[in-house]
Amino acid sequence: MRRNYNSFAKIQLKRASYNGITLASQARDEGSIPFARSTNPLYCMLSLPITTSVNHSSAAPLMMPLCQNKILVHKLTVTVPKIAQMTNPHHRKVRSFVRRPGRITNAQHKALRDLLPLFSIPFQNHLINPEKIFSREAPRVLDIGFGDGEALLTLSINNPSVDYLGVEVHEPGIGHLLLLLERAKTSNVWIIRHDASEVLDHMLPDQLFSAVNLFFPDPWPKKRHHKRRLVQVKFILDVARVLKSGGLFHVATDWNDYAEHIRCVLKESNQFTSSTEQDEVDFLSKRPPTKFERRGRQLGHDVTDLYFRKV
To answer: Which listed residue, of 1, 120, 145, 188, carries a Cα 20 to 30 Å from 40's Cα?
Structure first.
């Protein structure tokens, strides 16, 4: 019966021969642990129980049954490196985006090099200090996945009394927005170039924003990819944490199945109330059309806007 152990030790087995005959062998430890008989490789894998406290060379007897019932005992040196025992197997994080190279123009590349330091907040593993970043007391809006940035620029121009923080990973889109910001001479937009889930986890304090916008996130339409959708229970908890009481969570999508998925996830949350109509009083609920929206309409998709208020 094969025994399962936490780690493996790689041992070097020297061939031993008697009268020109290559001998099969069996390694014996205190537990009489067998290993596969092999005459070909100079190296074999031997299952040994290893703990992190072992970090030395030890000698184990090698029993070699020979012809005519003769037995040759040979000392085999086993070097066991110190290996951290795996108690929690590593699992790759499921992300809601794929970094596609895309086409980045020379102007966008230059903007990432020269302009990004002027508008960006570097990712960090601790909470930001809003008073140092935002130089005034004003409503703040978090825009997650702003794409090419044209909608975000339009919002910032139409609402100069509002501070906007955009989070995106797509470099051509970030470069395009930077060029637009420089041309428009706006000063109420900041950018974080990083995964939005990690930004929410590590950087954003509680009750910082009056609204969170999520316009046309990747719908991941295939069923096996639904786990990649950004709107999940954990994400909704993070959004609720960074929103002020009464704050708006505005989601737009051109994929009906994703809209139903969002409704189901938010329905399970006791921190939001939903509304199917735009709040005409709240100017933060208004949005300009986006590139993905125009593309969706050209394909005949229905565009759905979902509005949720933090209780």
So the answer is: 1
Backbone angles phi, psi at 201, to 5 degrees: -65, -40
Residues serving a catalytic function are 218
Q: 10 Å Cβ neighbour count for 76?
A: 17
Q: What 3-state class would DSSP assign to 211?
A: strand
Structure tokens at 180: 């637009």
Residue that has been written with the tokens 């994929």 in this structure: 255
- Under 8 Å CB-to-CB from 67, ≥6 apart: which residues? 18, 19, 21
253, 259 Cβ separation under 8 angstroms: yes
The three-state (H, E, C) secondary structure of 143-209, written as one string: EECCCCCHHHHHHHHHCCCCEEEEEECCHHHHHHHHHHHHHHCCCCEEEEECCHHHHHHHCCCCCCE
pLDDT tens digits for range 192-251: 999 999 999 999 999 999 999 999 999 878 888 688 899 999 999 999 999 999 999 999
